[in-house]
Amino acid sequence: MDFRKFNEVAELVGIAAVVASLIFVGLQMKQASDIAQNEVSLGIFATSLEISNEMNEYADIWIRGSRGDELDETEATIFGGLIQNLNNQAFFARSMRAQLGEDERLSTEVYNFARLLHENPGARKVWMEWQADYQPYRALKRVPLESESFSDQVREALKSMEEL
Question: Between 108-119 and 150-162, two packed helices, what is the crossing angle to 10 degrees?
Fold first, then answer.
Protein backbone atom coordinates (compact mmCIF):
# COMPACT_ATOMS: atom_id res chain seq x y z
CA MET A 1 0.00 0.00 0.00
CA ASP A 2 1.48 3.27 -1.03
CA PHE A 3 1.48 6.42 1.05
CA ARG A 4 -1.31 8.07 -0.98
CA LYS A 5 -3.83 5.28 -0.33
CA PHE A 6 -2.86 5.21 3.33
CA ASN A 7 -3.47 8.99 3.50
CA GLU A 8 -6.94 8.59 1.92
CA VAL A 9 -7.88 5.83 4.36
CA ALA A 10 -6.64 7.96 7.28
CA GLU A 11 -8.76 10.89 6.07
CA LEU A 12 -11.86 8.68 5.83
CA VAL A 13 -11.25 7.34 9.32
CA GLY A 14 -10.83 10.92 10.58
CA ILE A 15 -14.05 12.07 8.92
CA ALA A 16 -15.91 9.08 10.40
CA ALA A 17 -14.52 9.93 13.85
CA VAL A 18 -15.65 13.56 13.53
CA VAL A 19 -19.15 12.49 12.41
CA ALA A 20 -19.35 9.96 15.27
CA SER A 21 -18.27 12.59 17.81
CA LEU A 22 -20.85 15.07 16.48
CA ILE A 23 -23.57 12.43 16.78
CA PHE A 24 -22.41 11.72 20.34
CA VAL A 25 -22.49 15.43 21.23
CA GLY A 26 -25.97 15.73 19.72
CA LEU A 27 -27.19 12.79 21.79
CA GLN A 28 -25.67 14.32 24.92
CA MET A 29 -27.42 17.63 24.20
CA LYS A 30 -30.74 15.84 23.69
CA GLN A 31 -30.25 13.95 26.95
CA ALA A 32 -29.40 17.17 28.82
CA SER A 33 -32.51 18.83 27.37
CA ASP A 34 -34.69 15.87 28.40
CA ILE A 35 -33.24 15.97 31.92
CA ALA A 36 -33.87 19.72 32.19
CA GLN A 37 -37.47 19.32 31.00
CA ASN A 38 -38.05 16.51 33.48
CA GLU A 39 -36.59 18.61 36.31
CA VAL A 40 -38.88 21.49 35.37
CA SER A 41 -41.88 19.16 35.27
CA LEU A 42 -40.95 17.72 38.64
CA GLY A 43 -40.56 21.20 40.12
CA ILE A 44 -43.95 22.25 38.74
CA PHE A 45 -45.53 19.11 40.15
CA ALA A 46 -43.94 19.62 43.59
CA THR A 47 -45.14 23.21 43.73
CA SER A 48 -48.63 22.18 42.63
CA LEU A 49 -48.68 19.57 45.37
CA GLU A 50 -47.69 22.15 48.00
CA ILE A 51 -50.43 24.53 46.84
CA SER A 52 -52.95 21.69 46.81
CA ASN A 53 -51.98 20.88 50.40
CA GLU A 54 -52.50 24.53 51.36
CA MET A 55 -55.91 24.51 49.70
CA ASN A 56 -56.83 21.35 51.58
CA GLU A 57 -55.63 22.86 54.85
CA TYR A 58 -57.86 25.88 54.28
CA ALA A 59 -60.62 24.06 52.37
CA ASP A 60 -63.45 25.97 54.04
CA ILE A 61 -61.86 29.32 53.23
CA TRP A 62 -61.06 28.18 49.68
CA ILE A 63 -64.63 27.03 49.02
CA ARG A 64 -66.29 30.12 50.47
CA GLY A 65 -63.77 32.49 48.89
CA SER A 66 -64.07 30.83 45.49
CA ARG A 67 -67.85 31.28 45.57
CA GLY A 68 -67.41 34.93 46.46
CA ASP A 69 -68.83 34.59 49.98
CA GLU A 70 -67.99 37.13 52.66
CA LEU A 71 -64.65 36.43 54.40
CA ASP A 72 -63.30 38.07 57.52
CA GLU A 73 -59.94 39.87 57.34
CA THR A 74 -57.85 36.82 58.29
CA GLU A 75 -59.73 34.55 55.90
CA ALA A 76 -59.45 37.10 53.08
CA THR A 77 -55.70 37.28 53.65
CA ILE A 78 -55.39 33.49 53.51
CA PHE A 79 -57.60 33.30 50.42
CA GLY A 80 -55.62 36.08 48.72
CA GLY A 81 -52.40 34.21 49.51
CA LEU A 82 -53.78 31.06 47.91
CA ILE A 83 -54.70 32.98 44.75
CA GLN A 84 -51.25 34.60 44.70
CA ASN A 85 -49.57 31.21 45.09
CA LEU A 86 -51.63 29.77 42.24
CA ASN A 87 -50.80 32.79 40.08
CA ASN A 88 -47.09 32.59 40.87
CA GLN A 89 -46.95 28.84 40.27
CA ALA A 90 -48.57 29.23 36.84
CA PHE A 91 -46.37 32.23 35.97
CA PHE A 92 -43.10 30.54 36.91
CA ALA A 93 -44.09 27.25 35.30
CA ARG A 94 -44.82 29.11 32.06
CA SER A 95 -41.54 30.99 32.34
CA MET A 96 -39.49 27.86 32.95
CA ARG A 97 -41.08 26.09 30.00
CA ALA A 98 -40.40 29.15 27.81
CA GLN A 99 -36.73 29.05 28.80
CA LEU A 100 -36.64 25.45 27.56
CA GLY A 101 -37.91 26.63 24.19
CA GLU A 102 -41.61 25.87 24.51
CA ASP A 103 -44.01 28.43 23.07
CA GLU A 104 -45.18 30.44 26.07
CA ARG A 105 -48.34 31.58 24.25
CA LEU A 106 -49.56 28.00 24.16
CA SER A 107 -48.84 27.44 27.81
CA THR A 108 -51.03 24.90 29.55
CA GLU A 109 -50.35 26.74 32.80
CA VAL A 110 -51.98 29.93 31.48
CA TYR A 111 -55.12 28.13 30.40
CA ASN A 112 -55.37 26.00 33.53
CA PHE A 113 -55.05 29.07 35.72
CA ALA A 114 -57.56 30.99 33.59
CA ARG A 115 -59.96 28.04 33.81
CA LEU A 116 -59.63 28.03 37.61
CA LEU A 117 -60.48 31.75 37.67
CA HIS A 118 -63.33 31.24 35.21
CA GLU A 119 -64.89 28.50 37.32
CA ASN A 120 -64.41 30.32 40.65
CA PRO A 121 -65.86 33.84 40.55
CA GLY A 122 -64.53 34.80 43.99
CA ALA A 123 -61.00 33.79 42.98
CA ARG A 124 -61.35 35.73 39.75
CA LYS A 125 -62.51 38.84 41.61
CA VAL A 126 -59.55 38.70 44.01
CA TRP A 127 -57.11 38.09 41.13
CA MET A 128 -58.54 40.96 39.07
CA GLU A 129 -58.30 43.32 42.06
CA TRP A 130 -54.72 42.21 42.68
CA GLN A 131 -53.86 42.81 39.01
CA ALA A 132 -55.49 46.26 39.09
CA ASP A 133 -53.47 47.18 42.19
CA TYR A 134 -50.28 45.96 40.50
CA GLN A 135 -50.93 47.72 37.15
CA PRO A 136 -49.32 51.09 38.05
CA TYR A 137 -46.07 49.31 38.92
CA ARG A 138 -45.88 47.65 35.50
CA ALA A 139 -45.41 51.08 33.96
CA LEU A 140 -42.22 51.48 36.01
CA LYS A 141 -40.50 48.66 34.15
CA ARG A 142 -37.66 50.13 32.16
CA VAL A 143 -37.12 47.06 29.99
CA PRO A 144 -39.66 46.69 27.18
CA LEU A 145 -41.55 43.40 27.23
CA GLU A 146 -40.84 41.20 24.23
CA SER A 147 -44.20 39.47 24.50
CA GLU A 148 -47.45 40.12 26.20
CA SER A 149 -47.46 39.63 29.93
CA PHE A 150 -48.72 36.61 31.81
CA SER A 151 -51.71 38.55 33.12
CA ASP A 152 -52.60 39.64 29.56
CA GLN A 153 -52.47 36.00 28.47
CA VAL A 154 -54.71 34.98 31.37
CA ARG A 155 -57.19 37.75 30.53
CA GLU A 156 -57.18 36.67 26.88
CA ALA A 157 -57.85 33.06 27.89
CA LEU A 158 -60.66 34.18 30.23
CA LYS A 159 -62.22 36.18 27.41
CA SER A 160 -62.14 33.19 25.07
CA MET A 161 -63.72 31.01 27.79
CA GLU A 162 -66.53 33.52 28.25
CA GLU A 163 -67.28 33.36 24.52
CA LEU A 164 -67.86 29.60 24.67
Answer: 60
